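This section describes the prediction task in plain terms. A model, or a person checking by hand, is given the sequence of a single protein chain and must write out its three-dimensional structure as a string of tokens. No templates, partner chains or ligands are provided. The sample shown here is typical of the held-out split.
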Amino acid sequence: MSTASGTSRHKTARPAFSCTECGYSAAKWVGRCPECQAWGSLAEAGRPAALLRKITAGPVTTPARPMREIDASAVAPRPSGLAELDRVLGGGLVPGGVILLAGEPGVGKSTLLLSAGQAWAAGGQGPALIVTGEESAGQVRQRAERMGALDGQLFLAAETDLSAVLGHIDQVRPRLLIVDSVQTVASAEVDGSAGGVTQVRAVAAALTAVAKERGIACVLVGHVTKDGSIAGPRVLEHLVDVVLHFEGDRHSSLRLVRGVKNRFGPSDEIGCFQMTETGIVGLSDPSGLFLSGRRSEVPGTCATVTMQGRRALPVEIQVLVGRPSPNEGPGRRTVSGLESARVTIALAVLERWAGVRLHGSEVLAATVGGARVTEPAADLALAMATWSAVRDVPLPPDLVVIGELGLSAEIRPVPAAGRRMLEAARLGFRRAVMPTGSLPVGTSPPTGLRVVEVDDLGAALRAVGNDDGVVRWLRKSG
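The expected answer:
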């Protein structure tokens, strides 16, 4: 009896463990976190909390009211001054809304938010306070001077203590608060070092509570891990109202703000920016970055229109195919801006159904301007660019090709075909090859754009006048 009682007490006193990467809790230590798959991240976090067996009713803080009587004007979005950022946010910054902006180091998060703070203050929206924990006040001042972001209503504080940050909020009374970054701020009342799971959770919860209580639009900068996910506990993304990812290549001036979560607007929108010597500027029409602007016909190039969120963006795909070398194996495949799996599928379909011999040849496929294309709607353009490179037959420069390529060379429909056609016509394309059914019955294509609907790869090649022996073979096999 005593042995069983002692065993029970031993089990009750057993410590719990939590993951330092995602906050997952476990009763015992394991080498790999079951939630985020990180190795060696579980640390002892004390005894597990006792389960609540009975909960009694308590006083009501805010009485419930009919929904029609609640005033929603207080949370109407206010323009930030950056049109592309407002596009992603769904109209602007919401008073009391908390935004988490994550991105790789050096991509330009601080520059973007400094520009947003300047635009907010200059637009008469009220004071803006930037709290920096990663740079000194002098470093931020130099960047602001280079960007021309010096406004009387734009305040700056270099702090890493949570209580000091709250003190600055009391003094400045900002309408916009920017914390760069949430991993550098810590509270003396909470165990753990800055950037740890416990500290990040406590700091984010405190700043969120202050923002909602006082109606402050708050932006928190977050770090990312090596795989691109947001660092810190997963609960951080649940606490905030909006999660944005700031993406970009160090070797390209293009930057994208991509919405991941948004309680105030669409969560699949993107905003385009360009890094310049004096800061960052929004791009309402970024099409020029993704098209080469070539004037002559060049083999191995084909334009398409991709959907980035709700935005139609033109992209030019370029392919270079080397001469076959039977002594060097299957040949190397080099891809930039495209998914390697989609490229492999397109090349296999070309070899099987179009008679294009690629074994032993080095194939290089890339997008212009550092654009990233992940959707299958660019498959047909990739296949036709590769066919053009192998046959040394240039495609017309006013041609745009859209469609998903199946393993049996069929062309499948793509979503938002109407938006893609409108964007292609606006940019001056005169011919479009698209899947059958892209034009609804009884409708006509946009003015100036001639659309040819195709069912398979052979029909797509015939649509541009390339009727060689391979195309005739496809016609017979169909």
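For orientation: Confidence is low (pLDDT under 50) at residues 1-13, 469-478.
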